[in-house]
Design brief:
Strand order of the largest sheet: 4-3-5-1-6-7-2-8
């Protein structure tokens, strides 16, 4: 008698739609262990590409993320599609560039008719959940996660999420985040806030810090996993995004005076950069001492996340699920951290803000310990995750399946009104701001993007070639599209989701205003 087909064989034969209608095991009429992989996405915020031990950083300690790379593939030339939180997150979920999904800023909506990999996986029988920072509008927007436990940072999300309700119930206030992220508090910030560029020890004990809160909910979710139904978890950490506020004792992990200054540091701002933007903090006020302290706290935040990554890996191994789990570690965008004497991300799209870490541990540790030099983009993650899960990407997804080990993108594109076209050796940055200028760099001779050769006649042919590629990538018809914003878009239906009438907000806003010691 023939053996009954496996779930994977059923899925491939019947397709994702039929599989969704029958909910997996019902199709087979049996309770057998799934051979479909689990997927864990560890998504951090504002992580510069070279701030991991495995990436050659001589000072930072990230042993658990480094070990993940030894079991997987590290993509050395990985880029984000747009160096802004929400647009980049939407692109990761749906595999489209920003001008295609129309999520142009941090207050926008991913249209509910756009396919996402969580939505396709949920339809195919996966149990899908997100914890931590998602940065959606509305806060619990249904992008395919059945459950969401959120810890937001900026915007109205902090008045809706689980984490700030958690703090309020305990009589706590996240002072550092409030003065850094909310204008009404930032105007009253402590005297030491601006000179330190936001590098101050968290006022919260470690057990209540957002990094710990997010990690604990991720660990609780992993504890509930078994091998009878495939699972997807996206754990979104707020850090190492500013403010650089590790809790005690993490703030003591690095001695600022002993840190190696990162590549691309200059002793003062370039004139073109300062004209373009003075920065979230005034870049000209950055001293080497304040930079070193910010770097030490930035590293501490990354090491704190690494500690919890190790706990997640251990949890999966304890449950005998590690081998059959795809683990993705990446970021929404990068961070200057001293490059050209800049901090954070609000200037030209130089490499430190668009280049990001990407490590993928494939099921059964396929391609373990390898380094890919292909140029890849986070829009590639949706099709790669789906293919690895035995599902077909939607036709709207523009990325590649990274498992094939190919050469990746010949040109990396990034941005919307301000755009980047980057090859392995050349880079064009165009801007429509009146105070900005177009930039062109020969990266072989000038890897730190110092000398603008846009007006150099000898570079004209290469510039025109990259400009043509940009125009084809984002046709003129896309440039005037309106942002997608729907405050009343469909949210998930779970007990922890506040009413869409937002009647809860007044009480929580009042609590923080009355209890913040500014």
């Amino acid at each position: 008698m023939n053996e009954k087909p496996s779930r994977r064989e059923c899925l491939k034969t019947l397709g994702a739609g039929a599989f969704a209608l029958t909910q997996g095991r019902d199709l087979l009429g049996m309770e057998q262990a799934t051979d479909l992989p689990n997927v864990l996405i560890i998504h951090v915020d504002q992580h510069r590409f070279d701030c991991l031990g495995v990436c050659g950083n001589p000072d930072i300690l990230t042993p658990h993320i480094d070990s993940l790379a030894s079991d997987g593939v590290r993509y050395e030339n990985s880029y984000c599609p747009f160096p802004v939180c929400t647009p980049s997150r939407y692109s990761l979920l749906c595999g489209q560039y920003v001008h295609q999904h129309r999520g142009f800023n941090n207050h926008c909506t991913l249209a509910t008719d756009i396919p996402t990999f969580p939505r396709l996986m949920r339809s195919a029988g996966y149990k899908t959940k997100s914890v931590g920072k998602m940065h959606f509008t509305p806060t619990y927007l249904d992008t395919g996660f059945e459950e969401m436990e959120l810890s937001e940072q900026d915007g109205p999300g902090r008045w809706d999420d689980d984490y700030h309700r958690y703090l309020m119930k305990r009589g706590l206030v996240d002072l550092n985040d409030l003065e850094d992220q909310r204008r009404e508090y930032r105007e009253k910030a402590r005297p030491e806030y601006r000179p330190s560029f936001g590098a101050l020890v968290s006022n919260l004990p470690e057990e209540h810090h957002s990094t710990t809160w997010i990690a604990e909910r991720a660990l609780d979710t992993l504890k509930s996993w078994d091998n009878k139904k495939p699972n997807l978890l996206m754990a979104g950490f707020i850090k190492p995004h500013h403010p650089f506020d590790p809790p005690a004792p993490w703030h003591e992990k690095y001695d600022p005076s002993k840190l190696t200054i990162l590549p691309g540091w200059t002793n003062e701002c370039l004139e073109r950069d300062y004209l373009y933007s003075h920065g979230y903090f005034d870049s000209k006020t950055l001293t080497e001492d304040s930079y070193r302290k910010a770097m030490a706290y930035y590293y501490a935040s990354i090491s704190q996340i690494d500690h919890h990554v190790g706990r997640m890996i251990d949890r999966l191994k304890e449950k005998n699920l590690y081998d059959n789990t795809m683990i993705v570690f990446t970021s929404d965008h990068g961070e200057y951290m001293g490059f050209h004497h800049l901090m954070l991300k609000g200037n030209y799209m130089y490499d430190p803000v668009i280049r990001i870490p990407l490590i993928i541990k494939y099921p059964q540790s396929q391609q373990a310990g390898t380094v890919s030099k292909a140029m890849v983009n986070n829009i590639d993650l949706a099709p790669t995750i789906l293919k690895t899960s035995g599902l077909e990407p939607s036709a709207e997804m523009k990325g590649f399946d990274l498992r094939d080990g190919g050469s990746g993108h010949s040109i990396i594109f990034c941005g919307r009104t301000e755009c980047v076209a980057r090859t392995q050796t050349k880079k064009l940055i165009t801007t429509q701001r009146e105070r900005g200028e177009n930039l062109y760099f020969d990266l072989e001779k000038d890897p730190f993007e110092m000398e603008n050769r846009y007006d150099d006649a000898s570079c004209r042919a290469d510039i025109e070639e990259l400009q043509k590629a940009l125009d084809e990538w984002q046709p003129a018809s896309y440039r005037d599209r309106e942002i997608c914003l729907d405050e009343d878009a469909q949210q998930i239906r779970q007990p922890n989701v506040p009413s869409l009438d937002r009647s809860h907000r007044d009480a929580i806003i009042k609590y923080y205003w009355e209890n913040c010691p500014l």
